[in-house]
Amino acid sequence: MKFSRLIIQIFLVVAVVTSLILSFFIWTNTARYQRGRDVDVSTSDVDKNKIPIDQVISPTQVIWQDGKDQRLIYNNEDNISMNIQKIIKNWEFDNFKRVFTKDGARYQRMIQRKNAIQLVYPTNISSQTLGYLIGDKEMQKSPDNRFNRIIFTVNTSKDNYIYLGNDSTYSVYRAKVSNASSAPILKLARKSNIDLPVRLQMMKHGIVTFYTEPIKLKTYSYVLNEKQDSEYTTSLFDTDSSDIVTSTDGNIYSYNVGESKRLVSDHAKGELTFSDYTDTSVPKDWLTFFQRGYKKATNIQSSVSNLRLYNANWKEKTLIYREYVEGFPIFKKSEFGSIKISFSRNGSSESFLNKVLEVPVPSDQNSVTLKSTTSIMKSLETAGYSPNDVQKLEIGYQWTNEEDQNDVVDLEPTYYIKINDHWRSFENWTNESAEEE
């Protein structure tokens, strides 16, 4: 009996000593046990799920002029625009200086220059914001120029500059760049599996990407994720649920915390608006504007990996985000896209939809061949719209629910045109089809 007790005691001592030795190694050399794991002790689990800001604010188009033609390129298996943005993080930049402004003729030549690649953002951002996104601290301190195109030459060593272009003011800024190579970028460009001939056309309200030939694009289907109001009140109201006062008026549900915060949910439309009357500070610079918008957008939809900044209106302090598929924006039934965020002295507001794309599923829809942009413009003129009426024109995906499955949405490509500050499909403006017959 004594012998058995002695054996047990010996095992316990060995176990304690082994535990202490293992603990010592873990405390002094955590890398040994974390090798191969993506560990970030400074980031909470919630933050890990959020898409990074350089993905939300990223180019959505890559245009390649290979010495002969201009083409819009994309790879649905390897996002070219985001990968190029990652590559230029390793480049070294001098300060950007203005080359010219308000010169449409020079700007036209710049955006059509040969042997060049353009990264095109759907809206203006700023050079300090670009510095933040690529981790360049010196660029964050430089003059804050507005731009929506990054242009640089490839296949030549004569031009060691990178250019920023602004479609609204026809302005160009440039900076010398070193430690840069076009080889990995050309490798990405040549791997594109979507290759569409385009012409960058100057119009009254800016530059429009014209597709010079009919183009064939796939249709897609996605399962929708729809949240309950309670999920939003939990993330948006930093308070106990017992403090929230609920009221209803037909399909309109309102949630209030005193007179400081309010969430209004329209169950018929699936649209929600959150107002925070305590958030009365207005961003004083573009980088703060984008940072605060990103924080609010990802607090609403933290895991929507295809969410992109679509429009930034500095004058009205408003940001609009849309979901994207294959480099093209998704147009839902709302005017504001996926998320709209506004800042003012009276408080901030956030409008959004409670339905987001979650899982792609096989589509039983055929691919669609769309008309050339020139044909679309001719039809608009026939319908009574002048080219000067067109504020923006682009290809996007139309959101349509399947009749027999409310939780599945079909995404079908078509042209979208902005006239009189309203986005509508080509079919809605003209009562014609944008598809090639």
Give the topology, please.
Blueprint: H1 2-28, H2 31-34, H3 45-49, H4 53-56, E1 61-65, E2 70-74, H5 80-87, E3 92-93, E4 97-100, H6 104-111, E5 116-126, H7 127-134, H8 137-141, E6 146-153, E7 161-166, E8 171-178, H9 183-190, E9 194-203, E10 206-211, E11 215-217, E12 220-226, H10 229-236, E13 245-249, E14 252-257, E15 261-266, E16 271-276, H11 286-300, E17 307-313, E18 318-325, E19 328-331, E20 339-342, E21 348-353, E22 355-361, E23 368-370, H12 373-382, E24 390-402, E25 405-419, E26 422-425, H13 426-430
Parallel strand pairs: 19-24
Antiparallel strand pairs: 1-2, 1-5, 2-9, 3-8, 4-8, 5-6, 6-7, 7-8, 9-10, 11-23, 12-22, 12-25, 13-14, 14-15, 15-16, 16-21, 17-18, 18-19, 18-20, 20-21, 24-25, 25-26
Transmembrane segments: 6-27
Protein name: Regulatory protein YycH domain-containing protein
Domain Regulatory protein YycH: 10-435
